[in-house]
Amino acid sequence: MGADLCSQDECQDILAQIPQSGSFRFLDQIRELSDSHIIANYRFRGDEWFYSGHFPGDPVTPGVILIEAMAQAGLVALGIYLLRKENPKMKLRTLFSECEVEFFEVVPPGAQITITGTKIYWRQHKLKSSVEITLDNGRRAAAGTIAGLGVEVE
């Protein structure tokens, strides 16, 4: 992956620019980021708000939360990075436009996930990515494609 990787300081700066925060931020760290891909991590603590009502007594991470985590990495963070290279002063808000994801494994409370996103295309502020979530044991929990369109904000 090589020379086009952003530095850890740049990765931290991109993470700080992601608009989702607090209980709706599902990225702890960006491990790698380039023009073509992102690798990020998140650990579900187990006390997040959604577990109490999602299969009480035997909670699992909702699929929509996993999709949100994939979007935060594979669309928002990667999109911010690509846009900064193109036009550092422009600010976009990401509008989710496409999603086709399959689920393969349950993601329990306390699990650490690795989110990998690979750019399929970036043109006219639309980003489409192939995304995948893997668990610490290496098993694939979810995979698919997502897309979003950046709309300029003043």
Task: Please tell me about this protein's structure.
- The protein is an alpha+beta fold.
- The chain has a single domain, classed as Hotdog Thioesterase (Thiol Ester Dehydrase, Chain A, Roll).
- Helices cover 22% and strands 38% of the residues.
- It has two helices and six strands.
- A hairpin with a 2-residue loop joins strand 4 and strand 5.
- It is globular and about 50 Å long.
- The termini are far apart.
Total individual domains: 1
General form: globular
User: Counting H and I runs of at least 4 residues, what is the number of helices?
Assistant: 2
Q: Tell me what portion of residues adopts beta-strand conformation.
A: 35-45%
Give the helices and strands, then pairings.
Blueprint: H1 8-17, E1 29-33, E2 37-43, H2 63-86, E3 92-103, E4 112-123, E5 126-135, E6 140-152
Antiparallel strand pairs: 1-2, 2-4, 3-6, 4-5, 5-6
